[in-house]
Design goal:
- The protein is mainly alpha-helical and about 120 residues long.
- It has one domain (about 5-120): Globins (Globin-like), CATH 1.10.490.
- The chain contains seven helices and no strands.
- Helix 2 (about 10-30) crosses helix 6 and helix 6 packs antiparallel against helix 7 (about 105-120).
- The longest helix has 18 residues, at about 10-30.
- The termini are far apart.
Length: about 120
Amino acid sequence: MTKTLYERLGGRDGISQIVDDTVEAHMNNPAVNARFLPYKEQPEKLAVIKQHTIEFFSAGSGGPPIYNGKDMVTAHKGMNISPAEYMHVIDDIFIALDKNSISEDAKNEVLAILWSLKGMIVSQ
């Protein structure tokens, strides 16, 4: 029996850690940190963003189908995220995946998901 991507990412706890590590990487990445550093002064808003990210990725990877956030286009509307910024975000996610010892197969599946979302996020 093959495990779901959700299970291979460590379930809710694993995805939560990956999200925490990704946000930390974003905060330290000069290419995108201007978008994330203001949330240090808004911990409640950052907690909501993290929660929605955990729910979204859990639901999209075979976990519980519970997501209470906005759709990707609405969530990123007006942000005008560039293709280069999106690639930096993907790099940061892969830093977090490596930090959490995620397998190459699982990382490839994550990349496919991220790539499928690009049009809904970039230049909105």
